[in-house]
Amino acid sequence: MAVALQRPEDRSERDIRLIRSMMLGVLSFRRYSTQMQHMLARVVYYRRFGRGRVIVRRGHWGDSFYFVFSGVIAITQDEDGSSALLDPEPILLHKGASFGEVALLKGLRRNATVICMEETELLVVDREEFFQNKLDQELQKELQYRFQFFRSLDLFSSWCDQTLETLADHCKTEECHHSQVLVTDTHESRNIIFVTKGRCEVLRLVDLSQCPSFHKWIRQHRPLLGRSLLDYTGEKGVAMGSWRRSQRHPQS
């Protein structure tokens, strides 16, 4: 990472290609065109922070935006970020994410605090290089994509453009992998997730311990179900058992 500690004006074309090659492991960086990646690699610089370090504070002016090269960060609404260390389900961003671009792009104060949950490596772009290299134009396309997605949903058909634009500014686009758990318990989640592409499966835990028809069905089909069900529920499984019902949710 030593090459990313050099000042932009001191970097050779070879240095820029090397930085770009390293950053291709960052998902949010790969979304940009080759030309934009080259421009970012010219100006981005490396920072490393320990657990508990606040990167940006709510209410401060946005002067930089960040790529997460490694580690985990949390987004909170308190100024010092301490709630993230106590919250059972904080909003987390991992390697490949980026943040801080909206406040920088629109000249706004930060709407959240970002704190490191473990040792974290960041690649940073500051305001001066951001606008000098016209990086704002590419980020504006991302905001427009979010806005158009929300505008296409019937749920927001009655919302005015200004309110919808605020929603687009305050949300975050993330790419999730196959079999990745998005939410462990929706009853405890404080976030709303919109599926823009792909499919997800919702598993519901249903308690059938007091359901007579379930008990009857188990007794009738015990020979066919075999030991696998009995091993799962135990000898008291008929009285204590619960089944999972799944639903597939396509893209909105």
User: In CATH terms, what is the architecture of the largest domain?
Assistant: Sandwich
Tell me, briefly, the overall form: elongated
- Poorly predicted parts: 234-246
Q: Find the count of extended strands (DSSP E, 2+ residues).
A: 10
Mean pLDDT equals: 82
Tally of discrete structural domains: 2
CATH homologous superfamily placement of the largest domain: Jelly Rolls
How is the main sheet built?
Answer: 4 strands, antiparallel
Question: Helix- and strand-based class?
Answer: alpha+beta
Share of helix, binned: 25-40%
Ends apart, CA distance between termini = 40 Å
Strand portion: 15-25%
How is this fold's topology laid out?
Layout: H1 13-23, H2 27-30, H3 34-43, E1 45-49, E2 54-56, E3 64-70, E4 73-76, H4 83-86, E5 91-93, E6 98-99, H5 101-106, E7 113-116, E8 120-126, H6 127-132, H7 135-151, H8 161-170, E9 200-207, H9 212-233, H10 237-240, E10 242-249
Antiparallel strand pairs: 1-8, 2-7, 3-6, 3-8, 4-5, 4-7, 9-10
Function: Essential for male fertility. Plays an important role in spermatogenesis and regulates sperm motility by controlling the development of the flagellar bending of sperm.
Main location: cytoplasm
Protein name: Cyclic nucleotide-binding domain-containing protein 2
Would you write up a description of this structure?
With 252 residues, the protein is of the alpha+beta class. It has two domains: 2-134, Jelly Rolls; 200-249, no CATH class. The protein has ten helices and ten strands. The chain has helices at 13-23, 27-30, 34-43, 83-86, 101-106, 127-132, 135-151, 161-170, 212-233, 237-240, and strands spanning 45-49, 54-56, 64-70, 73-76, 91-93, 98-99, 113-116, 120-126, 200-207, 242-249. The protein has a four-stranded antiparallel β-sheet with strand order 1-8-3-6. A four-stranded antiparallel β-sheet has the order 2-7-4-5, with no helix packed on it. Strands 9-10 form a two-stranded antiparallel sheet. Helix 7 (135-151) packs across helix 8. The longest helix has 22 residues, at 212-233. Residues 234-246 have low confidence and may be disordered.
